[in-house]
Automatic annotation (TrEMBL):
UniProt feature, compositional bias: Acidic residues: 335-346
Protein name: ATP-dependent RNA helicase ROK1
Domain of life the protein comes from: Eukaryota
A single GO BP: maturation of SSU-rRNA
Quaternary state and interactors: Interacts with the U3 snoRNA and is associated with the 90S and 40S pre-ribosomes.
GO molecular function terms noted in the UniProt entry: ATP binding; hydrolase activity; RNA binding; RNA helicase activity
Length: 732
């Protein structure tokens, strides 16, 4: 089995589809036929009306009925391993795979109106072009659980919103600015039913359309289905009107938000045709961690191939904008950029970092991707003031709720304020967004507009239920009583002969997986404990690695690359990897320490089950110390299981959270929740005896402590501080 092909985000879907040999009922079995999470049955019904029941060659309806695991024919060409080395499980003999072979994307149609790319069914393009009436739009948006709300209206009104506008107009003449007491208006934009419509309906550049198709993307995910029409200017709107929206998008983890924010930005820049002359940045994308920023750069580079658009990661020591420093042009980086868009992007980026970390280097790229503090340093003048960035027309905040959390808030707002272009278009994206963060974002958008003529609408797009974990993964909440119990449970998961299902018949977790701990010190300690648990015949200690923000940039990149290549099977990490990171074939996650908020749970477990893939498993271990805090997590699991139709907390089916447990768990107060989010479970943070991760005897620990160098204690304390610029977990 070529693990690299399974894990690597960079591997092209279309290529993957031709080469992936394994067809297992695990997420690592490759590409899902349908990246959408909702609406398969309803949309199938509509198919009858819209395309007269057109069926694709492989028997899928063109509206993308989702292929469920286990329904298909038996496909497995994987070489057998002895059971003691079978860490990835589910092998040895023929297993059920997805019908038609998951990952044969090149031949699959799989979705509503995806004819042109997927093989060009007759009349499909015409069908793509037919403007749906309001009822049809409503039906599609509802079936995909999409809600589009106008938070602040532009003048003139958005298409699809004329009626409401007229009604209001007769009273007030113009809609008042946003106010929490005013009712919000829901609109129903024309949904994007196929990614080919990006070209046929919105006229995106041929290059960009080709690059999208080359990645194997055909059917839009839910967030793309609604966000792209909104950001590309809605059907029938002029190019100028494209600029009229600021967007707050809340969509599940792994639902393709990256593509949704990149395509409109890149297409606008490409169409401007000034790429060769422009030296100032046109778009800024901010993400909370270096790993995520790097990933966005790599995704972007695949889309801009042969377009002339340059997209770069801002690194320490770089400068952005004209400043009072010696200006050294970094345009030469372009050649290196091309290199790092390869599958080894992260490693090559890291190797190059040393070449460019000289003060005063100015990045000459059209699109800059950065963590907040690195970018802030890059635009800071010697006197401490911030360089204004009037050339920036697009500001994208990925994982916006973290970027506007107190941890990063000042940095993010300083960057936002530096983007002084009066026509700045802002979009904020996350899988979770609390109402306080939403209000803060709105306030800031409106405040920045006070002195400008900017009249853009502010739109909120919500996919599914807000702040809910993915319905397509299995959640397992296990009481382990003590720290030792947790260690034992994790060791069992690592054991190659561990049962493939648990006592309730639920699928067990198999590597590759991520293990999340509360602090850097705990990640280190757990790694030290488990390092030798995988036998040397299976690769031994090289199969398990730690990754946290106390490590050097190079070491972090190396672990990421090795994991994507399948050389490392288990990463023990902090919340550093909880947000945005996309390992395509991850089988699951283990919350070794209970996440410190419901949102943290949603993001951590969202590392698996990406793009609609089924089979991911999320195991959460909790001890006596967690009992006062675990209810919010249990509630998220219950809601997700309800969506999936497995019990919903009523004790039926295979639900992990029974109603009696929900009733028995104490409800933490708002204050308790805030404290937990800020500090984590106190005993773990303080490293008290009961919370220590160690199987060493007291005597051995004492001997170890004596050997410690003077000053080593302060290092431990340092690693708990938020000294690093990136998000390393709220509690690190
Ligand atoms: N239209 C599509 N068809 C198939 N796969 C897609 C499509 N759009 C995105 N993907 C894939 O889905 C995966 C997740 O995408 P992405 O990382 O953008 O998710 P996200 O919504 O940003 O997740 P998170 O909230 O965790 O950051 C990626 O592997 C991407 O290649």
């Amino acid at each position: 089995m070529d693990i690299y092909k399974l894990l690597s985000r960079s591997t092209k879907l279309a290529q993957n589809s031709r080469t992936t040999p394994a067809q297992q009922s695990l997420p690592s079995s490759g590409q899902n036929a349908n990246p959408q999470l909702f609406g398969h049955e309803e949309v199938k019904e509509m198919a009858g009306e819209l395309v007269n029941g057109n069926l694709s060659e492989n028997g899928n309806t063109v509206l993308g009925k989702r292929k469920r695991r286990g329904k298909g024919k038996i496909v497995d060409v994987v070489e057998e391993l002895p059971p003691e080395l079978d860490f990835f499980g589910e092998r040895g003999g023929k297993k059920k795979g997805k019908k038609g072979g998951v990952g044969n994307g090149a031949s699959e149609t799989g979705g509503l109106g995806n004819g042109a790319v997927a093989g060009g069914e007759d009349g499909q393009e015409e069908e793509d072009e037919r403007r749906l009436d309001e009822e049809e739009c409503k039906a599609i948006l509802r079936s995909h659980k999409l809600k589009v709300t106008v938070l602040s209206e532009s003048n003139p009104p958005l298409p699809g919103n004329e009626k409401v506008k007229r009604k209001k107009k007769s009273k007030d003449n113009i809609l008042p600015p946003l106010s929490s007491s005013k009712p919000k208006l829901q609109i129903y934009p024309q949904p994007l039913t196929s990614l080919t419509q990006l070209r046929t309906r919105y006229g995106i550049s041929k290059r960009l359309a080709e690059n999208i198709a080359y990645q194997g993307y055909k059917l839009p995910t839910e967030v793309q289905l609604a966000a792209l029409p909104l950001l590309m200017g809605e059907s029938g709107r002029s190019r100028e009107q494209h600029k009229d929206i600021d967007l707050l998008a809340v969509a599940p983890t792994g639902s393709g938000k990256t593509l949704a924010f990149l395509i409109p930005v890149l297409d606008t820049l490409f169409k401007d045709k000034k790429m060769d002359q422009e030296t100032e940045p046109q778009a800024i994308i901010v993400a909370p961690t270096r790993e995520l920023a790097n990933q966005i750069v790599n995704e972007g580079r695949k889309l801009v191939e042969n377009t002339g658009i340059r997209i770069s990661l801002v690194r320490k020591g770089m400068s952005v904008g004209k400043r009072d420093v010696d200006v050294l042009d970094l345009r030469g980086e372009r050649d290196e950029d091309a290199e790092s868009s390869s599958d080894d992007g992260e490693q090559s980026s890291a190797q190059k970092a040393s070449k460019v970390q000289k003060p005063g280097y100015v990045v000459k790229s059209h699109v800059l991707v950065s963590t907040p503090l690195t970018l802030l340093h890059a635009i800071e003048n010697l006197d401490g003031t911030t360089t204004s960035l009037p050339s920036v027309r697009f500001l994208v905040l990925d994982e916006a709720d973290v970027l506007l959390d107190p941890l990063f808030r000042d940095q993010t707002l300083s960057i936002w304020n530096a983007c002084s272009n009066p026509d700045l278009r802002t979009s904020l994206w996350s899988a979770t967004m609390g109402s306080s963060i939403e209000s803060l974002a709105l306030e800031h958008i409106l405040k920045n507009r006070k002195e400008s003529t900017n009249t853009a609408s502010i739109i909120r797009l919500v996919v599914g239920l807000k702040d809910t974990a993915l319905p397509n993964i299995t959640h397992i909440l296990t009481y382990a009583a003590t720290e030792t119990g947790k260690l034992l449970a994790l060791r069992q998961l690592l054991h190659p002969t561990a049962p493939k299902t648990d006592s309730s018949g639920r699928k067990s977790l198999r590597p590759p997986f991520l293990v999340f701990t509360q602090t850097i010190d705990r990640a280190k300690a757990l790694h030290a404990e488990l390092k030798y648990d995988i036998p040397p015949e299976a690769g031994g200690s090289s199969r398990i690695a730690a990754l946290h923000s106390d490590m050097s940039e190079t070491a972090r990149s190396k672990v990421m690359t090795s994991f994507r290549r399948g050389e490392i099977w288990v990463i023990i990490t902090t919340d550093l990897l909880a947000r945005g990171i996309d390992f395509r074939g991850l089988n699951g996650v283990v919350n070794y320490d209970v996440p410190t908020s419901a949102a943290a749970y949603v993001h951590r477990v969202g590392r698996t089950g990406r793009a609609g893939r089924e089979g991911g498993v999320a195991v959460t271990l909790y001890t006596k110390d967690d009992v006062p805090h675990v209810k919010p997590v249990a509630n998220v699991i219950a809601a997700s299981e309800k969506l999936r139709g497995v019990g919903g907390g009523d004790g039926e089916g295979q639900s992990s959270v029974k109603q009696w447990l929900l009733d028995a768990l104490p409800t933490p107060s708002k204050r308790d929740k805030q404290e937990l989010k800020r500090k984590g479970v106190e005993s773990r943070r303080a490293g008290t005896k009961t919370a220590r991760i160690s199987t060493k005897s007291k005597l051995n620990r004492g001997l170890g402590a004596q050997k410690k160098q003077p000053g080593s204690q302060s290092k431990g304390v340092k690693s708990m501080d938020l000294k690093e610029e990136e998000f390393g977990g709220f509690s690190d």
